[in-house]
Amino acid sequence: MRISIGCDHIVTDEKNYLVSYLEGKGHEVIDNGTYDKERTHYPIYGKKTAEKVVSGEADLGVVVCGTGVGISVSSNKVKGIRSALVGDVETARYAKETLNANVIAMGGRIVGIGLIENIIDEFLETEYQQSEANDRMIERIDALVMNEEQKNDDHYFDEFLEKWENGGYPNE
Ligand code: RB5
């Protein structure tokens, strides 16, 4: 499979580990960064990772930040993305089976790396259970979205990056 992956600076080590883990299983991985531990913002990587999925460059996405909350919410703003924040294997199965989730999100500071591996395995291996009811629900969810201007603005998150520079996030 082709997997798009992204993270923020809090969990770069975990993301790098997961890139190797997925490649070791024979997947083709698109690593959208971040690539180091310089402070940055999770929406940038949630968006980039998600866009590779909707464009068809990747089959599925994996996003990780400290809690998984910020990057899951961000990736969900990309039209066509159904990103599930998960901390257990059963929820990962449900997300794929029922909602055909195309991105899985996890908190790298919350969930242990062994469990993250199991969650990803379940997510990749579970098949969507197609039904009229599930298709209809997904169709309705996919109709909710980010506008074109926001989608194409590469500087949309710049103010937050500037805030890092100016010491605006003292605890992270
Ligand atoms: C750091 O920006 C931290 O807030 C982030 O990794 C994540 O936990 C947000 O949900």
List the helices and strands and how they pair.
Blueprint: E1 2-7, H1 12-24, E2 28-31, H2 42-55, E3 60-65, H3 69-75, E4 83-85, H4 89-99, E5 103-107, H5 113-125, H6 132-142, H7 148-152, H8 158-165
Helix pairs in contact: 2-3, 4-5
Measured on Cα atoms, how large is the radius of gyration?
Answer: 16 Å
| Global geometry | globular
* Portion in beta strands: 5-15%
CATH superfamily: Sugar-phosphate isomerase, RpiB/LacA/LacB
Sheet of most strands: 5 strands, parallel
The oligomeric state of the chains shown is single chain
Order of helices and strands: EHEHEHEHEHHHH
Would you tell me which CATH topology applies? Ribose 5-phosphate Isomerase B, Chain: A
**Terminal-residue CA separation:** 34 Å
Structural domain tally: 1
Q: Provide the CATH architecture.
A: 3-Layer(aba) Sandwich
Which parts are unreliable, with pLDDT below 50 for 5 consecutive residues or more? Answer: none
Count of DSSP E strands? 5
Which compounds are bound in this model? D-ribose
The order of strands across the largest sheet is 2-1-3-5-4
CATH class division: Alpha Beta
Describe the structure.
- The protein has 172 residues and is an alpha/beta fold.
- The chain has a single domain, classed as Ribose 5-phosphate Isomerase B, Chain: A, CATH 3.40.1400.
- Helices cover 48% and strands 14% of the residues.
- The chain has 8 helices and 5 strands; from the N terminus they run βαβαβαβαβαααα.
- It has helices at 12-24, 42-55, 69-75, 89-99, 113-125, 132-142, 148-152, 158-165, and strands at 2-7, 28-31, 60-65, 83-85, 103-107.
- The chain has a 5-stranded parallel beta sheet, with helices on both faces.
- The radius of gyration is 16 Å and the shape is globular.
- The N and C termini lie far apart (34 Å).
- The relative contact order is 0.15.
- The model has no long low-confidence stretch (mean pLDDT 93).
- Bound molecules: D-ribose (RB5).
